[in-house]
Amino acid sequence: MEVDKVLLQRARAGDRDAFTELVEPHRRELQVHCYRMLGSLQDAEDALQETLLSAWIGLDGFEGRSSIRTWLYRIATNRCLNVLRSSSRRPPAATPFPVTPPPEPSRLGEVPWLQPYPDLLLDGLPGDDPGPEARYESREAISLAFVTAVQLLPPNQRAVLLLRDVLGYRAREAAEILGLTEPAVNSALKRARTTMDAQSTGRPTRGPEDPDLVERFVTAFTAQDVDALLALMTDDVWVRMPPLPFEYGGTEAVHRFFTVLAGHRREIAKMVPVGANRQPAWGEYIRDPVTGALHIVGVLVIGITGTRIHELTHFETTLAPYFGLPRTLD
C-alpha cells in the first residue's frame, strides 16, 4: 500500500509513468469486464481507453476510500453503461450472406454485435479468481454462451450481475460503484438471476471427455460431411453467424443449413487452431484457385458440452489480427 501511495503522489504530480505503473496491473481484467458488459472486443477496447483517460484526468478525485482497482471498475462500468444507453450505438455492418436466398432461419439473433475474445488476452489474467460472493467460475463467465445471455439483460441488471456474481463484490460495494442503493442493487440482481436461469444458456462449456471430438469435427467440417458433423452435435445445437442475424437451432435446421451452404461455399483448405473464450476455435482459410495462396474467410468457435458440440459460431475476418491470424498464408 505504501508503494501505491508513492505512485499515486507521483501520478497526481503529472508523472505518466507512475500512472501507468499504478493502473497496468488492472488493465487486462478491466478489458474483460468491458467485454462482458458490451459483448464486443472492439467496443471493450474503446471503453478501456476511455476509462484510463478518465482516470488520468480525474486522478485528483480519487479519495482513497476504496482500492484503485475498485475505483477503476467504477469508471469502467459507468463508461460501459453510457455506451449501452447511447442511441448512437449501432450493430456492425455485415457482409452479404453467401447464399441467395438464405435458408429459413429458426430465429433472428438479438446480439449481432457479439465478437469472440482471444484466449491470448486471458492467459495469466490478474484477478482470474472471483471474489467470495461470486456464483460463476471464471471459465463459465467468459464463454460465448454466458456473454450472449448477459447481453439480453437491461444495462443496470447487466452491471449488477457482473459485479456481484462474476467479480464477487458485496451488495454495498456494488451499490457504491453504481451510485445506487443496496435495495436497488439487490432487486436488480434478483431480476437478472431470474432471467439468466430462464435462458439456461450461461451454463459451463466443459472440455470434451472424448479427446478425439475436436479432431473429428475438423475432419468433418473441412470435408463438408454434413452427416458426420450432425453426429457430433447435441439435439439442441445452435449455429450462429454474427453480425448476420440468422440463427439455426436443432439438428433438422442445422442439417438444412449445412446442406444448402455446401453447394455454394468454397472448400475450407486449412483450419488454424486458436483459442477464444476458453473454447476451441480456428481461423478458416480457403485456397485461391489462381495464386494458390490461402485466404482467411472467418473465425470459427465451438461450444462443447460433455461429448457433443452444442454451439457453432462463425465470425467475420475483422478480428483475425487479434488472434494472430494473418489474412493470407502460403
List key phrases describing it:
single chain, 330 residues, alpha+beta, Rna Polymerase Sigma Factor, Chain: A, Arc Repressor Mutant, subunit A, 3 domains, 8-stranded mixed sheet, 11 helices, transcription, sigma factor activity
Q: What CATH architecture of the largest domain would you give? A: Roll
* Strand fraction: 15-25%
CATH fold-level assignment of the largest domain: Nuclear Transport Factor 2, Chain: A
Morphology call:
globular
Helix content: 40-55%
Query: H/E series, N to C?
Result: HHHHEHHHHHHEEHEEEEE
CATH class of the largest domain: Alpha Beta
Radius of gyration over C-alpha positions, nearest whole angstrom: 22 Å
Family: Belongs to the sigma-70 factor family. ECF subfamily.
GO molecular function: DNA binding; sigma factor activity
Domain SnoaL-like: 214-262
Domain RNA polymerase sigma factor 70 region 4 type: 145-196
How do the helices and strands line up, and which of them pair or pack?
Layout: H1 2-12, H2 16-38, H3 41-57, H4 68-85, E1 107-108, H5 144-151, H6 155-166, H7 171-178, H8 182-199, H9 213-222, H10 226-231, E2 233-240, E3 246-249, H11 251-262, E4 270-276, E5 279-287, E6 294-305, E7 308-315, E8 328-329
Parallel strand pairs: 2-7
Antiparallel strand pairs: 1-3, 2-3, 4-5, 5-6, 6-7, 6-8
Helix pairs in contact: 1-2, 2-3, 2-4, 3-4, 6-8, 7-8
Domain SnoaL-like: 214-262
Pfam family, one: SnoaL_2
Family: Belongs to the sigma-70 factor family. ECF subfamily.
